[in-house]
């Protein structure tokens, strides 16, 4: 990573500064961004722990706790989608484009299922955003994570569309690798979130 | 600024644009992905906001000229100091340092541009967006945010007029957008420094400015998300009825203070570290000596990064923090004086027996160094719990902070502008106007901020529109200093505009400096070295040493002189 990179010569078709953005930079940039992004979740998690340990009344009146079964199924689907994305990447490395597209689409579908499941869960809940600090935390954490899932699905859609462009992978697969990394990150965050919100009583 | 650019005659054909030259000025108003254009965009807009923030400061000082609250309504006064702080930090210092990063980092490491040029332009264009948003909040029915730049709840979650879009709402949105812009910038700067250095430029051949920029941007990456998280929670509390920081709903207002200071103390280092880099670049040039202890100065930057992330509670000594926390954070805060002390000693040792050239840039550096030593001493005083509890929330803190933020950091920024302006515009600034600017700024800032320490030690609280007449003398002096600082902007801006339009041609290396950026023509061409990146052979700052910086140095010098 620290080896100095030789600069490519600008090609005729592109503007010079675009020609210099290498694939390798993309992945480095994504890793740096995700390090930063993990801190914001860390801040929310820390806040959640502080509130939970210090609030005189944690659950709002009339709320018994969260139902775990459906969210657990959602969790399993989201976490499995990470493996599907990984298989998709392997197919891409072997240049089996249609297998890649199929598995990639499956990952997107699993992500979408998760978001829909989340929306359904929100609809059925007996408490709202303004019902004390528990309600505030629950909707903030799941909502903020949900935004990340939606972003991930949109990014994957972009990569899927790009896969139909001729010569798209001549410079490597850094775009797909970066989005895939983002997706794994979103999944790991969900596991932590699930443990904090649903498992920790 | 637009007014400066519009009177500029074209000097070169538009087909062969040089990013820093005043020709074809319209590109400064476009979504341009060139780091040098973006750098100038940042600096010009940030200087505009310096005038706005300065104007607010002068109204504040006008109010404080007399003990009575007579110039503006006290509630307007609250809005004034809130917006003064916000404008100066988020619309002046952060953006102008990002501008310097954009101009300096790629040529200093031999890169053609930033790693992600489009992201870079996007990060810049968020700046006029959130800047305009903040300015528009002056025209809202309830006025702008008036909870201070800390925006502590419960003050910041009051919404007396009941409008959904109120000053505080706009403030939080603008600060969050500024955070997004800074994180995008940080990803870009760190990737560029990690991956795009010239062949042969190992870590300990990298200029200190790049080290400090890296150290500062790491703070942005780790700290800013926490502030952004706190700001999101605050926004929800204010606008959507959540109770993160509302005790009646089980929330905790202290947590906001932790979130805020976890970033906002290191934020001072985000601004100070690049200025330490500027000092480290400029002292060797104008003292004709290598930087003393170069590797240690480089590593001290990273030490400051690490330590700056574990000192934030010293802002909360009087917020009811437990005793063990006070002791722990007093210790870590004092510890940070060690790496900063290393740097100060290195700079003094660099100056020692050097052949000093007192150019305007050097004067600002020397002035900044003297002020920084003073600010460091009051800083250690404030780190001490008993002193802090005594003078916390008084003008002593205001004086200390301005000695850091203006008398050190802004001095360093001015020094950088005087030093690198010829490189990126191809024109020399006028030394006479520059020295006038320095004298007015030094006298003005001393008059402005030194008496604040005295007023604070006597017990004058901050953020008040009226005060006891016993503090009158200190306040009159401070106000005179503030107006003098306003006057000091006239020679400065006159210098920038007139030199850019028709200053003397600078040539590639007017200060006889050593560094990759000085091997380029002034202004540098679009992609700096393009395909012909020099191979770095030695550590920077080889002043007085008989060693080449890069292989085949003569040919680079020759081509830079030809402007090829």
Would you kindly provide a written description of the structure presented here, covering whatever features stand out?
The complex is a heterodimer of chains A (201) and B (564). With 201 residues, chain A is mostly helical. Helix content of chain A is 73%, strand content 0%. Chain A is built from 6 helices and no strands. Helix content of chain B is 64%, strand content 0%. Chain B is built from 16 helices and no strands. In chain B, helix 3 packs antiparallel against helix 4, helix 11 packs antiparallel against helix 13 and helix 14 runs antiparallel to helix 15. The chains are: A mainly alpha (201), B mainly alpha (564). At the A-B interface, helix 1, helix 2 and helix 5 of A face helix 4, helix 5, helix 6 and helix 7 of B.
Structural class of chain B: mainly alpha
The helix content of chain A is over 70%
Largest sheet of chain B: none
Regarding quaternary structure, how should these chains be classified?
Answer: heterodimer
Strand tally of chain B is 0
**C-alpha geometry of chain A:** elongated
Overall pLDDT metric of chain B: 93
Q: Whole-number radius of gyration of chain A? A: 20 Å
Straight-line N-to-C gap of chain A:
43 Å
- Chain pair forming the biggest interface: A-B, 48 and 57 residues
């Amino acid at each position: 990573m620290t080896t100095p990179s030789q600069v490519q010569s600008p090609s005729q078709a592109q503007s010079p500064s675009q020609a210099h953005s290498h694939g390798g930079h993309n992945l480095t940039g994504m890793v740096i961004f995700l390090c930063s992004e993990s801190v914001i979740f860390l801040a929310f998690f820390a806040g959640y722990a502080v509130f939970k340990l210090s609030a005189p009344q944690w659950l709002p009146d009339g709320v018994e706790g969260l139902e775990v079964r459906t969210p657990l199924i959602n969790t399993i689907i989201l976490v499995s989608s990470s493996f599907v994305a990984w298989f998709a990447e392997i197919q891409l490395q072997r240049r089996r484009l249609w297998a890649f597209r199929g598995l990639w689409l499956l990952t997107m579908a699993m992500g979408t299922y998760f978001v829909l499941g989340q929306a359904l869960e929100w609809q059925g809940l007996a408490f709202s955003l303004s019902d004390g600090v528990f309600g505030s935390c629950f909707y903030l954490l799941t909502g903020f994570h949900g935004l990340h899932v939606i972003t991930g699905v949109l990014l994957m859609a972009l990569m899927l569309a790009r896969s139909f462009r001729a010569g798209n992978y001549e410079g490597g697969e850094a775009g797909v690798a970066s989005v895939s990394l983002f997706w794994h990150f979103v999944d790991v965050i969900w596991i932590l979130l699930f443990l904090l919100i649903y498992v920790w009583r | 600024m637009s007014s400066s650019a519009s009177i500029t005659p074209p000097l070169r054909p538009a087909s062969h644009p040089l990013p820093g030259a005043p020709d074809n000025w319209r590109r400064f108003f476009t979504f341009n992905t060139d780091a040098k254009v973006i750098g100038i965009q940042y600096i010009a807009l940030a200087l505009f906001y310096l005038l706005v923030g300065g104007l607010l400061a002068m109204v504040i000082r006008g109010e404080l000229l007399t003990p009575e609250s007579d110039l503006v309504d006290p509630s307007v006064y609250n809005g004034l100091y809130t917006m003064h702080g916000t404008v100066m930090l988020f619309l002046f210092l952060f953006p102008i340092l990002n501008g310097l990063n954009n101009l300096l980092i790629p040529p200093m490491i031999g890169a053609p541009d930033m790693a992600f040029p489009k992201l870079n332009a996007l990060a810049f264009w968020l700046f006029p967006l959130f800047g305009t948003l903040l300015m528009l909040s002056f025209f809202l029915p309830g006025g702008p945010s008036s909870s201070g730049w800390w925006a502590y709840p419960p003050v910041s979650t009051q919404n007396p007029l009941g409008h959904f879009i109120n000053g505080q709402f706009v403030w939080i949105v603008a600060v969050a957008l500024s955070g997004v812009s800074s994180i995008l910038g940080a990803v870009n700067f760190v990737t560029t420094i990690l991956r795009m250095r010239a062949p042969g430029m190992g870590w300990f051949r990298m200029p200190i400015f790049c080290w400090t920029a890296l150290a500062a941007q790491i703070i942005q990456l780790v700290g800013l998300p926490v502030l952004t998280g706190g700001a999101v929670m605050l926004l929800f509390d204010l606008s959507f009825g959540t109770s993160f920081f509302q005790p009646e709903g089980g929330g905790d207002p202290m947590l906001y203070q932790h979130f805020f200071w976890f970033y906002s103390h290191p934020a001072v280092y985000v601004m100070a570290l690049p200025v330490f880099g500027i000092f480290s670049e400029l002292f060797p040039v104008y003292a004709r000596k290598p930087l003393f202890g170069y590797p240690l100065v480089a590593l001290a930057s990273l030490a400051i990064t690490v330590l700056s992330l574990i000192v934030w509670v010293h802002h909360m000594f009087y917020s009811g923090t437990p005793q063990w926390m006070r002791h722990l954070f007093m210790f870590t805060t004092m510890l940070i004086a060690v790496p900063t002390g290393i740097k100060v000693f290195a700079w003094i040792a660099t100056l020692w027996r050097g052949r000093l050239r007192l150019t305007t840039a050097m004067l600002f550096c020397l002035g900044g160094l003297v002020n920084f030593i003073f600010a460091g001493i009051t800083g250690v005083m404030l780190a001490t719990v008993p002193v802090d509890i005594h003078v916390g929330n008084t003008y002593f803190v205001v004086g200390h902070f301005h000695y850091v933020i203006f008398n050190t950091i802004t001095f360093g920024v001015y020094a950088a502008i005087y030093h690198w302006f010829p490189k990126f515009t191809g024109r020399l600034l006028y030394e006479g106007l520059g020295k006038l600017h320095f004298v007015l700024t030094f006298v003005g800032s001393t008059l402005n901020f030194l008496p604040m320490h005295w007023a604070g030690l006597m017990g004058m609280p901050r953020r008040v529109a009226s005060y006891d007449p016993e503090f009158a003398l200190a306040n009159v002096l401070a106000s005179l200093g503030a107006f003098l600082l306003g006057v000091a902007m006239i020679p400065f801006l006159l210098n920038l505009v007139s030199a850019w339009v028709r200053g003397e041609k600078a040539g590639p290396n007017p200060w006889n400096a050593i560094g990759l950026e000085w091997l380029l023509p002034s202004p540098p061409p679009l992609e700096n070295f393009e395909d012909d990146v020099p191979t770095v052979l030695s550590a920077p700052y080889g002043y007085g040493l008989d060693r080449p910086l890069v292989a085949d140095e003569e040919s680079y010098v020759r081509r830079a002189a030809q402007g090829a």
